[in-house]
Write a structure and sequence with these properties.
mainly alpha, Cytochrome C Oxidase, Chain A, two-stranded antiparallel ribbon, 17 helices, 2 strands, about 75% helix
């Protein structure tokens, strides 16, 4: 990019300048890694509790009903929200050719936001959730979080107004969308008194928007940028990438009815759900096609780069999860898989594998460039990826299989009249898939170890990584004769 110059000096003054210029991005990347580890730890505790319900039965704050919302808040709001800010503060200046101002405000705002999310998750653990899915923060924390979520979009938008690069890079669309979707969805979920539409609008729309729109958006935008930079190859198709973005933006919220098929929602929502579900699948396939075709003919680069391997694992997982989510929008599929652990498996696949792998690909690319140090312990990073892929993949698959078995059993029992799908009959069906819950819990521990290795690699980069040329943004000023 014409707006970037890589300085080969490695003197203290250059590193100090680079650190000041990138302090918000580098600091928030480190915080995001810690939040990922904390959220994954809570998720593992949740899965262990699900597999062994009697474990810590007398300890109220370790109840499944508290661990699950706390884990989701730490992963979606904590890791996802902070990583979105770090991605925006790193990418946007490079893509528009403008140095970011107010680094201190951006860093303090991000740290304050991370602290409030952590405090909110602790309140949920010790006092219980205060609302439905992904709206569980207590009211006293809700609105301060909303205020801090509004800081990144204003900082990013102000940079766009002074851009020196004219190209409309697709990464800008994803990142800009993410920084605005987070506060918009959060504020929508915090509006009180929505009687009548509340359960549909707030529980469905906000949760669906957070999980399938805001949460993965910045990671996907970062993936496009990182792949081009790491491979040295141009993106296969800019129009395809933009089409994928607008398809995702236009269908993710409309896919909300997939969570309610078979319930009391109006019949017309089935048509909306099917159309939007197809849109979700198209958007995911567009991403995978673009990334794969960009590397086509040069897979040796992917094998040599740990960053690209993280990126491709995350993109593959995201595509699989999104396609399966889209399939759930068809009524015939929902009749079998609705109200089962199938949807829990999709959520685990997204929060424990897809977005963490995509997010860490970005961190492993960007963090060395903001700190002036090479990635420490590449072997540990590679081992972490393997553990995350196998551990997280098996965990998600266990819940998907459990959901499929439960759904088929319920339908068979209803058709044969051999079991009533209520009360003891309902519980007996879940007892038949207990083994899957145990497998999922054990595999999640493996994934947690992988995440711990990733975090150790990131933090170790700053503390012990070998010095490297620092990357400093030098905007190209237009000449008078241009």
């Amino acid at each position: 990019m014409t707006q970037d110059d890589s300085k080969t000096d490695q003197g203290p003054l250059d590193r100090f300048r680079a650190d000041r210029q990138e302090r918000a991005a580098s600091g928030l990347m480190a915080v995001a890694c810690l939040l990922l580890l904390a959220g994954a730890g809570l998720l593992v505790l949740m899965l262990i509790k699900l597999a062994i319900p009697t474990l810590f039965a007398d300890t109220e704050f370790l109840a499944y009903g508290r661990l699950r919302p706390a884990a989701m808040l730490m992963l979606v709001y904590g890791f996802g929200g902070v990583l979105t800010q770090a991605t925006a503060y790193y990418l946007i200046p490079r893509l528009v050719g403008v140095r970011m101002r107010h680094q201190q405000a951006a860093l303090l705002g991000g740290l304050g936001y991370a602290g409030l999310v952590t405090l909110g998750a602790l309140v949920v653990v010790f006092r219980g959730p205060s609302g439905p899915e992904l709206i569980e923060f207590p009211p006293i924390i809700d609105w301060p979080i909303a205020a801090l979520l509004l800081l990144p979009p204003f900082l990013v938008t102000s940079m766009l107004r002074h851009r020196t690069e004219e190209g409309a890079f697709v990464s800008i669309l994803y990142v800009l969308g993410a920084v605005w979707w987070y506060p918009a969805l959060h504020i929508t979920g915090s509006i009180p008194g929505l009687a009548g539409v509340g359960p549909f609008l707030q529980t469905g729309l906000v949760a669906n928007g957070m999980l399938w729109l805001a949460f993965p958006a910045a990671a996907l935008g970062g993936a496009y940028y990182v792949l081009v930079k790491e491979s040295g190859r141009p993106l296969f198709s800019g129009p395809l990438a933009r089409a994928g973005f607008w398809t995702l933006a236009g269908t993710a919220l409309l896919a909300t009815p997939t969570r309610f098929l078979g319930g009391p929602a109006p019949n017309w929502t089935e048509t909306v759900a099917v159309a939007a579900a197809m849109g979700l699948m198209i958007a995911a396939l567009a991403v995978m096609t673009n990334l794969g075709q960009t590397l086509s003919g040069d897979w040796e680069t992917a094998r040599k780069s740990v960053v690209i391997r993280y990126l491709m694992v995350g993109a593959t997982a995201y595509t699989l999860v999104t396609v399966l989510t889209g399939m759930s929008g068809f009524r015939s599929v929902a009749a079998v898989l609705g109200l089962t652990t199938w949807h829990e498996g999709l959520i685990i696949g997204t929060t424990l594998v897809a977005v963490p792998a995509l997010g860490m690909a970005f961190v492993f690319h960007a963090f060395p460039r903001t700190t002036g140090r090479d990635l420490a312990g590449e072997e540990a990073a590679e081992r972490g990826l393997r553990l995350l892929t196998w551990g997280g993949g098996i965990t998600a698959a266990a819940f998907l299989v459990a959901g499929l078995v439960s759904g088929i059993t319920w339908n068979w029992a209803s058709a044969s009249g051999s079991r009533l799908n209520a009360g003891a009959g309902f519980s007996d069906t879940f007892a038949e898939v207990d083994l899957m819950f145990t497998v999922g819990a054990l595999a999640s521990v493996v994934a947690l170890v992988g995440i711990a290795l990733m975090v150790w690699t990131t933090l170790g980069t700053y503390m012990s990584g070998a010095a490297r040329p620092v990357e400093m943004l030098v905007p190209v000023e237009p000449r008078d004769d241009e």
